[in-house]
Sequence to fold (459 residues):
Amino acid sequence: MKYETDSRKVQPGQIFVAIKGHTVDGHDYITNAVDNGAIRVIAEKEVTAGVPVEVVPSTEEYLKRHLKEDYAEEINKLQIIGITGTNGKTTSAYLTYQLLNLLGIDTAYLGTIGYKYHNKNVELDNTTPDILTIYKILLELAKAKCHTLVMEVSSHALSYERIYGIKLKIAAFTNLTEDHLDYHKTMENYLKEKLKIIDYLSSDGTLIVNGDDEASKKFIKKNNNAGITLGFNEKFNYNIVDANIAPDHTNIKFIYEKEEYNVTTHLTSKFNVYNYMTALAIIHALNISIEDIIEKTGEIKPPKGRCEVHKVNGGYAVIDYAHTPDAVEKVISAYNELKTGKVITIVGCGGDRDPIKRPIMGDIATKLSDYVILTSDNPRTEDPEKIMDDILKGVKTKNYEVELDRHKAIKKGIELLEPEDILLILGKGHEDYQILGRDKVHFDDAEEVENWRLEHEKN
Fold:
């Protein structure tokens, strides 16, 4: 790779591109980059660097353009699948990644839970990382002769053109619900950014959408009225006829081209029916038979922190990443359908993020749960009590308590469990940290549950 934007990572002979970010300005680190071996600098202003400097109007645009010119041909030899949507991206992508590998197709995954390929498992800061990181990963995969990459494509990535120059063999849309309005401002803007994924489809690419989501019509329309649909409707290509959901598995019956199929997954909840069917439709679009996909389905599992079930204190603790109003509603509703006891929910909202959804989530959680413990998520630089005040503005019931300490909230939730009760611990899922102020401290919801269980069993 010719280019680098992090002065600490510069190798001798590279070109340092000084990017002005939200919190750090690469122009302040040009000297460090040159000391580390940069032979040329791309900047937005005149600087003295001791090496040739090229001044351009936008270093971000320079980097995008040159990455495409120098490397797009090589990276697009990969078969790239992109999945976008508010909820379900991670599970749909992870299921696709697992199934393709089980079917003998060498596949990598890139998204919320990191970058995975063979035994490599790298954590990433964003669902879809910056364009330079993406190109580095794709070049690495191309050199390793990887066949396919399944990647999550966030609205931010589409807005910032982080996949500029990349061609998608398949683009899939899961759903559109309220999220990221602190950035997008309106749902119209949010949808507009999501629709940009169509611009990256290759000339022979395929669009796959959840037809039950109203926004799917916009995706189909933008794609010249072409696309494969799935959902609970006989007019869709994949018509889901029935989903029999149990606490530890789901039986799905669907029809494709007048042929009826039955499959059992280890996933639960209606939204995971959509996620599984999205994965199946993607893989089938790659000319793999439905029968072969179904044969391998029993071997797949959900990603960490997505409806992750732990048996504890006579009941079930379910850890899930649900952190939007729609996702919280779907998770609680799904487990209400499965419960034989109570559903107790632990939930909060992140700081420095969309405050509009806070009262909505408070209302949904308390309205749908038998009992709720409202707690902190990642407060970041916001006052946790201020976040909680926003959440409580939407609460109209009295079936809740507030415990801002997430550790204490989880402990209380577990101790409230009676036989067959379900405790939903929502918001952080796979995350093994909590952001307090500007500090990232270790905190893992699953560890909290298991630590309580081990301590309880000892006693």
